[in-house]
Amino acid sequence: MIHGIGLDIVEIERIDQLLVRQPKIIRRVLTEREQQQFMQLGERRRIEFLAGRFAVKEAYAKAFGCGIGRELSFQDIEIEKASSGKPYISHTDYQVHVSITHTKEYAAAQVVIEGTGA
């Protein structure tokens, strides 16, 4: 049973400008593990990574119906990668399906949260 779906799109240039103005955005949006992955990337790929993770976390919060704020923060959500490269979010009560895409101008993400029947 589908618990919720979420979709988000972000302009990569906006994230790039935000990163220049407020470098602390990295620590606000990315978990420690995600920050380590971020630091291993080249400059252009870093912006795409940050924008993609931002979009996924926004989409995840929308799928839960609460948004980022009092109930859920960026730090509560960690995007992992399967050996196949597929992104996912671990959750004890739900199966979380994640899709991220990038173009030159945008990063977009869709999240589907499915009940496990437990």
Automatic annotation (TrEMBL):
GO terms for MF: holo-[acyl-carrier-protein] synthase activity; magnesium ion binding
Keyword Transmembrane helix belongs to the record: no
Subcellular localization(s) per the UniProt record: Cytoplasm
Domain 4'-phosphopantetheinyl transferase: 4-109
One Pfam family of this chain: ACPS
Residues reported in the UniProt entry to bind Mg(2+): D8, E58
Biological processes annotated in GO: fatty acid biosynthetic process; lysine biosynthetic process via aminoadipic acid
EC number: 2.7.8.7
Catalytic activity: apo-[ACP] + CoA = holo-[ACP] + adenosine 3',5'-bisphosphate + H(+)
Cofactor: Mg(2+)
Keywords: Cytoplasm, Fatty acid biosynthesis, Fatty acid metabolism, Lipid biosynthesis, Lipid metabolism, Magnesium, Metal-binding, Transferase
KW Chaperone (keyword) present: no
Domain of life (superkingdom): Bacteria
Entry's Gene Ontology cellular component terms: cytosol
Family to which the UniProt record says this protein belongs: Belongs to the P-Pant transferase superfamily. AcpS family.
NCBIfam families for this protein: acpS, pantethn_trn
Function (record text): Transfers the 4'-phosphopantetheine moiety from coenzyme A to a Ser of acyl-carrier-protein.
Name of the protein this chain belongs to: Holo-[acyl-carrier-protein] synthase
Species this protein is from: Jeotgalibacillus alimentarius
Gene of this entry: acpS
